[in-house]
Amino acid sequence: MPTVDDILEHIGEFNFFQKQTFFLLCLISAAFTPIYVGIVFLGFTPDHRCRSPGVAELSRRCGWSLAEELNYTVPGPGPESQCLRYEVDWNQSTLGCLDPLASLATNGSPLPLGPCEQGWVYDTPGSSIVTEFNLVCADSWMLDLFQSAVNVGFFIGSMSIGYIADRFGRKLCLLITILINASSGVLMAISPNYTWMLIFRLIQGLVSKAGWLIGYILITEFVGLRYRRTVGIFYQVAFTIGLLVLAGVAYVLPHWRWLQFTVTLPNFCFLLYYWCVPESPRWLISQNKNAKAMKIIKHIAKKNGKPLPGSLQSLRPDEEVGEKLNPSFLDLVRTPQIRKHTLILMYNWFTSSVLYQGLIMHMGLAGSNIYLDFFYSALVEFPAAFLIILTIDRIGRRYPWAVSNMVAGAACLVSVFIPEDLHWLRVTAACLGRMGITMAYEMVCLVNAELYPTFIRNLGVLVCSSMCDIGGILTPFLVYRLTDIWHELPLVVFAVVGLIAGGLVLLLPETKGKTLPETIEEAENMQRSGKNKEKMIYIEVKKLDTPLN
C-alpha cells in the first residue's frame, strides 16, 4: 500500500494547497517574534535619576536648563547618578541658584547619599515595564525574571508538546495554543501590577513556542520529502520578517501596553485556521483514522488540481511497525561517540540561545537608536538562511557550522575594542555576529537529527534542544548583571563561548551525503568513512524535534 509521500508525488508535493498552508502557518511564525525577543522594547531601560519635587521647584525658580539641573543636583557620573540622591532638603530657602550644594559641604567632605525614596524620572517619551513598575536599581533583577519566566514557559511547553500533539492531534493543539496565547497576551497588556504581568507572560511562554513548533510540524507533514528542509528553513525566515515588523510597530507605539496589545491581537485571527488548515493526514493514519486521512488527501488533490489515481485509494503509515526499542536517556551517554555528540550538541544549543538572545538584549542597552539597530541586525538573518541552503549540500554541515560560531564569537570580541564614536563599525560587527549565530542556530537543528540512530533520534533532539531554553532562562541575568559591572563584559563572555562552540563542532563527524544511522553501531562508526548513499530526510516530524531560530 502507498504512503502519504507516495500519494503526494502524484497530487503535488508543494503545489497550491501546500503554498497556501505554508503562507498561513508562516504568519504564526512571524507573530511569535514579540514573545521571543519583545523584551528589547517592552523592557527598555532609559536613562533615569531620582525624583525630587524640591529639585524641580528649585530648577523652575532658577531657570536652569536640564544640563544645569543634572550638574547641580545629581551625583555622578556613574551608577550612583541613577540610583542614589543627595540627602538634602531641596525646599530650604538658603539654597542659591549657582552651585547650591557648595554651602552645604563642610570641610570639603562629600555630601551623604541615600536611595531614591520618591521614585525616578525617566528620560524617554514613551513607557516600558521598567518605567511603569520601576524595575531599576535594587529591583532591576525583576526585569531579568520577566524574560526568564517566558523561557521557563518555553522549556516546559517544548518538553510536553511532542506528546500532546501526538496524542490529541496537530490541529486541535494549534488552535488551543493560539487561543491561550492571544488571551494571556491581552491580559498581560492590562495587568494592574508586576505580579500579574509576570504570570501572564509565563502562560504565553508555555503555549507560544509550542504553537510555533506545531506550525512547523504541520507544514513539514503536508509537503513532500524533497521540500521538508526548504520549508523548515523558510518557516524560520518568516520569524525574521516578524523581527522587521516588530521594529516598525515598536517605533510607532513607544508605550509598552499599546505595543503588547497591538502585537497580540493578530493571534485571534489565527483561530480562523479552524476552517483553513486541515488535520495532518500523517497523524490521522498513525491513529488508524484512514478514512478521515483519505478525505483530506482528496481535498489536497482538488486544491492542487490533480487527480488522485484509483490505485492510491488505500494508505499505510510512512514507517512500517517493526520491533520497537524503548529509548532511554542513558542511550545518549552510554557509548563514547554518542556521548561526545550529546555533550557537544547540548553545549551548542545552549551557546546558540545565549548568543542569539544575548546579542539582541545587549543591543537594547547600547544607548543608540534601538529601532534602527534592531532592524539592521534582523536584516542579516536573510543572507544567513540563504547561505545555509547554498552550503549544506555543497560544502557540508560541519565547516559552515563551525565557521558561523567562530564568526559570531570573533565579532563579539572585536566589538569590545571598537570605540563608541565609530558607531557604524560597531553596528557592522554586531550584524556579522547576528548572522553567524543565526546560521549556527539553523545548523544545530539540522545536524542534531542526523547524528542519532533512529530509535533515539527524537529523544536526542528533545534533550539537546532543551538546552536552548535553559540558555534563555540564564541569558537575561547574564546580560543585565554583567553590564552593570562593565558594559562590554557580556560580549567577552559571548566571544569565549562562541569560539569554543566553533572548535567543538570540528570534533563532530560530517553528515553530508551519509545515510541516517539506524543503530547504535552505525552512529558510533560515523566518524569513519561511512556510506555515501544519501537519505533525504531532514527531520522527523512526529515528535518535537525542531528549535526556534
TrEMBL record:
One of its GO terms (biological process) is histamine uptake. Its main location: membrane. GO terms for cellular component: apical plasma membrane; basolateral plasma membrane; presynapse. The keyword Membrane applies. This is Solute carrier family 22 member 2 isoform X1. It is found in: Basal cell membrane; Basolateral cell membrane. Residues 98-513 form the Major facilitator superfamily (MFS) profile domain. The lineage of its organism: Eukaryota, Metazoa, Chordata, Craniata, Vertebrata. GO terms for molecular function: acetylcholine transmembrane transporter activity; amine transmembrane transporter activity; choline transmembrane transporter activity; efflux transmembrane transporter activity; L-arginine transmembrane transporter activity; monoamine transmembrane transporter activity; prostaglandin transmembrane transporter activity; putrescine transmembrane transporter activity. It comes from Bison bison bison.
